[in-house]
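In this supplementary section we document a worked example of the pipeline. Step one takes a protein sequence of length 149 as its only input; no multiple sequence alignment statistics are reported here. Step two produces a three-dimensional model, which step three serialises into structure tokens for compact storage. The input and output of this example are shown verbatim.
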Amino acid sequence: MSRNQIYLHFVFTPKRRQPIIDPRRERELFAYIMGIVDNLGAKLIRINAALDHVHMLVRIPTTITPSSLIGTVKRASSIYIREINLFPNFPGWAREYSVFSVSPDGVESVKRYIASQKEHHGRVSFEDEWIGMLPPDERATWKMSYFDG
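The serialised model returned by step three reads:
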């Protein structure tokens, strides 16, 4: 039997980073996404959101790719959000997303970071944080509009 510890930290946004993720109903979204991830044979470790983006830490099996996991999560959750009108005026998820590998030693730190999203983004905007994570030579050419599609 093979053994793996592939942990991935995903970040994705509604189109145009619209602040539509209502904290009063986000748990419904989280529960639905947990079901999607479970059905794919992965394990959702932590999920949280700010008004304009979602973070999730997932342990994936070797049988699934990051792009297929996030594609399935975004496609299925988008249908669900619209069917039950979870977030009025939901524009769909942006085409782009981010994914970061996490070492097993870093899982607890990422879990804490994801858990503190609302407080964190009360101090630092998503855009400022994102641009600050880019290598210096990419900061001048990066456009947040990449998340708009």
